[in-house]
Write a structure and sequence with these properties.
Rossmann fold; 6 helices
C-alpha cells in the first residue's frame, strides 16, 4: 500500500469507518510473515565480498540468521549439508554470475537433488531471457541489483516463506510454518 505523505484527509475516520474497512481481513493462521518472533535462515551466495556483507547486514538488521558462500559450488555444498543435518535454509539468495559455478547452475543442482528451498536469483542483468533462464533452472523468483530488502519481504509474503519461531517453548521451532495471508481493505482515496 502506498500512502502519499502530502495528502490530508477531509475528515478523520470514525470508529465505524475503520470497522467497515477492516471487515475484509482473510486470516489463515496464527503467525505473521514478518513478526519479531519469525526468523529466516538465509544463505547468501555471491562472489563479491562487499555484496555478501551488505546482504548479511540487511538480513541481520531484520533479525534473520544468515550464512555466506563465495560461489555456487560452495553454496550448493552448504545447502546439501544443511538439509542432511535437518537444519535447512528457508531462502537461498543466488548471484547470477560467479566463478566456479554460477547461480542458475547452482539452482539447477539444488533442484535436481530434490531440495525444495526458496531460491531467489539476484542479478544486475534483468533481461527477460536471463530472468526466464534463471527461473527455468529452479529459481522461484529473481530480484534486481541493487538489492532491496523490501522486495525480498514482498516475495516472502507472496510465497508465504516463513522461518523458525524464536520461542524456546515451541518444540516445533525448527520446522517451517506457513504464515497467514492477510488482506486489508483500505479506505477509499488512500490506495
Amino acid at each position: 500500500m502506498t500512502i502519499p505523505l502530502y495528502h490530508v484527509p477531509d475528515r478523520l475516520p470514525t470508529e465505524v469507518d475503520q470497522f467497515e474497512h477492516t471487515q475484509r481481513i482473510v486470516h489463515t493462521g496464527d503467525a505473521e510473515v514478518f513478526s519479531k518472533d519469525n526468523i529466516l535462515r538465509v544463505l547468501v551466495v555471491d562472489d563479491a565480498t562487499s555484496n555478501r556483507k551488505l546482504l548479511g547486514r540487511l538480513l541481520k538488521n531484520r533479525g534473520h540468521d544468515h550464512d555466506e558462500a563465495e560461489n555456487g559450488k560452495v553454496g550448493l555444498e552448504m545447502v546439501i549439508a544443511a538439509e542432511s543435518k535437518g537444519l535447512p535454509y528457508d531462502i537461498v539468495l543466488l548471484d547470477y554470475e560467479m566463478p566456479v559455478m554460477n547461480g542458475p547452475s547452482a539452482a539447477k543442482e539444488i533442484r535436481s537433488r530434490g531440495i525444495d528451498v526458496f531460491i531467489v536469483g539476484i542479478t544486475g542483468n534483468m533481461m527477460a531471457e536471463d530472468v526466464a533462464f534463471f527461473r527455468q533452472c529452479g529459481a522461484n523468483a529473481v530480484l534486481p541489483k541493487p538489492f532491496k530488502m523490501a522486495s525480498l519481504e514482498e516475495l516472502c509474503m507472496e510465497y508465504q516463506v516463513t522461518g523458525r519461531e524464536k520461542s524456546a517453548n515451541n518444540p516445533d521451532s525448527s520446522k517451517n510454518k506457513r504464515s497467514p495471508v492477510v488482506i486489508f481493505d483500505t479506505p477509499q482515496g488512500l490506495s
